[in-house]
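Submission checklist for the structure archive. All mandatory fields must be present; incomplete records are returned to the submitter.

[x] Identifier: Mannosylglycerate hydrolase
[x] Organism: Listeria grayi
[x] Residue count: 719
[x] Sequence attached
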Amino acid sequence: MAGVHLGKHVSSPYFKWQGLNGKSEVYAVNMPQGYGTGMLLEPTKEFVEGRLDPAIEFIQQFGDNREVLIPSGNDQLAIIKDFSEKITKINTIGKYTYELSTYADFLEYVKALPDLETYQGEFRSPVLARVHKTIGSSRMDIKLKSAQLEAKLLYRIEPMLVIAKKAGIHISERLLMTAWKKVLEGAAHDSLGGCVSDTVAEDILHRFKEAEEIADSIENTISKKLAEALGLSNQEILLFNTALTTFEGTKEVQVISPTKQISFPDHPEAVIVEADYVEARENVLFETPAGNEYIEEPGYYLLRIQLPVKLPGLSYQVVSFHSTTQEFPSMEQKPTAQISNDFITVSFENGVLTAETAFGKRIEQFLSFVDEANAGDTYDFSPLVGDTPVKLTFQTAEISTAKGVQKMKLTGSYTLPYDLENRLLTPHKEGVLQLTATLTLKTGDPLLHGELHVKNSLRSHRLRLLVETGIETDHNHASLPFGFIKRTKGVPADWEATYSEMPIDIEPLEQNISVSDEEAVCSVFTKGIKEYQHQGTALALTLLATTDQLGKPDLVYRPGRASGDTTKRGHILMATEKAQLMGDWNYDFAISFAQGAFSEKNTAQLGKYFAAENVDYLRQDYNYFLHRLDNKIQSTGQQLTVPQTLSVISLPEDILVSACHPSYYKQDQYLIRIENPTSEAIEIPTILQQAEQINALEEIQEAKRNVPAYSALTFRLPL
């Protein structure tokens, strides 16, 4: 644990680390000098007096411990031969007695220590070692793809496998395991951190590509086989709810049709939000039993349709449409640069984007950007001395509306210095940064949804989205797995005297970040953006932090040696051209404002709502490549009897589910994991009270009557 501040967090390197609920705890063993303290073990006076004995004395200054742990290892370290014999010789040289042991044995010693301290909180204080506080935005391509894949597996594929099993479609769980393994192979700390060479980054992204292909293939197989079993036509959409609670709101579905003149008789408020026309093609090969023919393939529309629906938990149902002579409602351009619903109004006038909440809070320059030079590397952002950050605001706005939905498309194109060298030159070489944001408001939806597109042609820079909250406070609440953490903004003025790198208040988030006072709360929800900074009354979320080097020495934020050993003897300064992230990048986010103080429960509920997936399927012969395997999945002739609608289980709306997937050990059973990210225990829903409670290995546990604060419980049920 590199981020332990000995003397502040705890006085001894051996202590108990307590969870958010104040009850869960683990024994912690800190290695103040890292895991290479005893590496290159040699029974010489120079090694013992110059390295080993001083390590003991350094650790002993933090607590009165009769025994201390000296790890002997490092990255890619060769096996130390004659280990025991070397320790015996060392004991004749030094001031202390050494013995060969194991981590498990030392942990038993720690557990027996009297009056162990307890610490609750993070380990992100770079006192004795670097923690790379800004690595959360390095190689954002890796981070965005990892987050997208995790969400796809958790919120689409795993629940769909449960639905499929219930319907009699069996796909091996080992295929799911293979996808997860590919994702997790890219989750090692350097890999997901992004502090790797370009060749390693390529390997990571290739594993993600393999995982995504497996996931898409599973979804395509389930959807197509269900549609075939149901005998659906090309005017019947198979619509899924992969959440375990009832969904009531709007889903977007894809329709492929030769005309836009269609109708959803059971959904009169449906509306086209996007339409693309694919032109007809001549001389297209058509294989028939009588031989090959060459035909004219008709043109067709790819339509995205917003559909108001109500779906029970973990379910599917069929939605029908038909051709008509009437034009289907679609988005219409409006001259006024304003969108609004019952929760918020957003307007654009004279280059100023303004938000006004339903409870009267007005915020100008609501969304903007800051671009600045990045003199850092793949481990850390660092500013360029002499550079001035540039604030960017939107330049144009277009409004389109339809019943139940309003959209504002904001654009901007900015000419900026091309690279680090040109940031300080006049005149200088320039590049163009293009930004497009589409803000969407829906009737009855408390979230302002945002889709952001960045076209990057600049090098070595950091781009951040600024969300102005209008809330004066020095603290914020960031989401964690199964909870929230309260952080205070600010950096110590004399940090160089204590820290090995600047303890910059740039922090990670799991999915959302909130600022609040007693009157209002503003929450920002993201998909893949993992780094924020609380500045004044604004939240700055990092979109890109591009660089040309693996590791650099003597950074403003990180003085001294280069991380990544690039200034170590025999090593090289390694260029990372692909970490410049040139090209197109897309981000999804949402923002909510509410009256009153911050609520863990309400924020978590909104987070789950934001994470919900749109999953639908339409059998059609216009384009076999809209889904990965439509052109390859053949009918097996197996007769399946499946209902027109199916719901596996529907939990109460206030229950938060973090996972639902088939059992890996029991046939025809599945798992539900309920999370409680709040400070109060919650009651287990009646429908789950008789289910087996298990751990991550699916071992049956003693049943609990509620889900403890900041915790989770896993249940196993029959299908």
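[x] Structure attached
Curator remark: DSSP finds nine helices and 40 strands in the chain. Residues 198-230 form the longest helix (33 residues).
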